[in-house]
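Worked example 3 (structure in, sequence out).
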């Protein structure tokens, strides 16, 4: 079997990939994540997922490399990682009572064969109506500054939601495992 590499330094993606029980290493992709003009959120995450996988390929010429990227969209606007308490509060206030769509791009790149499988998985999060006190308490407790959409669904973020809708809850955390297993199967990786 080829070496398996996660082209990400995200502790959330690493933890998800560990669920599959496969040995893997991680590598930091150096990719400009600037959105191209007129690029849809889906096109953006597809492009970045593949770019991240290909960016680490020179160091791993005989590997299956996983690249992933995610954006959250509310009212047709892309929400990035907030980076600060103030921005997290702004994002969660904007999402209160609304539906947020998370688009997660996934790429499995076979660097030996120069073959890429790329997909976009979407997941809908229906937020409860939240007051400013709820939002501030949540942000102060979990400090979700490096999470697209300003919450951690695997933690207290679940208290912010009315309903979740999608095929794979792992998509919301940033790595669609069901689709990844399908891709790995096409590369003859046997699971479980």
């Amino acid at each position: 079997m080829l070496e398996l590499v996660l082209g990400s330094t995200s502790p959330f993606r690493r933890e998800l990939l560990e669920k599959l029980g496969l040995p893997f290493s991680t590598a930091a992709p150096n990719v400009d994540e600037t959105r191209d003009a007129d690029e849809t959120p889906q096109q953006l995450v597809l492009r970045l997922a593949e770019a991240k996988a290909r960016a680490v390929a020179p160091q791993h010429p005989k590997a299956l490399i996983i690249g992933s990227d995610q954006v959250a969209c509310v009212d047709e606007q892309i929400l990035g990682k907030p980076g600060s308490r103030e921005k997290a509060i702004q994002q969660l206030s904007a999402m209160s009572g609304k539906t947020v769509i998370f688009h997660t791009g996934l790429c499995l790149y076979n660097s030996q064969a120069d073959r890429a499988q790329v997909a976009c998985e979407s997941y809908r999060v229906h937020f409860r109506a939240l007051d400013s006190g709820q939002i501030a308490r949540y942000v102060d407790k979990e400090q979700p500054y490096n999470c697209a959409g300003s919450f951690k669904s695997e933690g207290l973020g679940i208290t912010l939601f009315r309903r979740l809708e999608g095929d794979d809850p792992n998509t919301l955390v940033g790595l669609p495992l069901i689709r990844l297993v399908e891709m790995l199967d096409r590369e003859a990786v046997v699971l479980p």
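Notes: The first strand starts at residue 3 and ends at 6. The chain is about 30% helix and 25% strand.
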